[in-house]
Amino acid sequence: MDSDTTPLIEARSISKYFGAVTALEGVNLRLFPGEVLGVVGDNGAGKSTLMKVLSGMHAPSRGQILVGGKPVHFRSPRDARSLGIEMVYQDLALAGNMRIDENIFLGREQTRRLFGLFPIIDHKTSTQQAQSHLDALKIHVKSVAQRVEELSGGQRQAVAIARATAFNARVVIMDEPTAALAIKEVRKVLDLIKDLKRLGMGVILISHRMDDIFYACDRVMALFHGRNFAESALIETDRNEVIGWIMGNRKV
């Protein structure tokens, strides 16, 4: 990765206060094209709050967010999505009783004009585009017409990722994507994350699983009590050191 490349997204001195509670204090983060950044920390370290700031759910109390080197102000997740910032939450937020293609385009349905006047959902185009998108991501399902409730946990996670990346995503933020998966499905999701990297997207991966971090990530940063604690390329650290960061310990 070229160190001179402009970050896809950058957080500079981000602080977030909830009344008298300090969730984040002066946090910095940079994510580059084609990079997977692991974010680790104990419960309450500020990981989820930082991701909600980056995805437009929370406005920072202080600090600045830059996308492609330009300062931005997100008023809502819609603003973040318009700039290619997508977040896949741990609960996935999928509609189980709807088809795969319907979930991928939920809220952003493909339409056509009936008699040139009335907009209606274009199911044929949605089906074709959903299948093409799944193929590009190497996601294998029996049919895009399957209901999500019929899928395995790993397949549901893959559909959530497909939905997040279907509309020119540049940054995908994932909150514990393998936490609820069977062991055999974990590798498939991590390989999908690597495929996003190969497509030039940037991925932020929040995980408590060191196996996930060291398999899929290029860099790891640790938060501790709402602050930056440590950061390293994966090839320059090891599991024990990263676990120490999570607990607030540094090598002497």
Automatic annotation (TrEMBL):
UniProt keyword annotation of ATP-binding present: yes
Keyword check for Nucleotide-binding: yes
InterPro entries reported in the protein's UniProt record: AAA+_ATPase, ABC_carbohydrate_import_ATPase, ABC_transporter-like_ATP-bd, ABC_transporter-like_CS, P-loop_NTPase
Keyword entries, A-Z: ATP-binding, Nucleotide-binding
Molecular function, one GO term: ATP binding
Pfam families in UniProt: ABC_tran
Domain annotation ABC transporter: ranges: 9-250
CDD domains: ABC_Carb_Monos_I (cd03216)
Origin superkingdom: Bacteria
Name of protein: ABC transporter
Organism (species): Oscillochloris trichoides DG-6
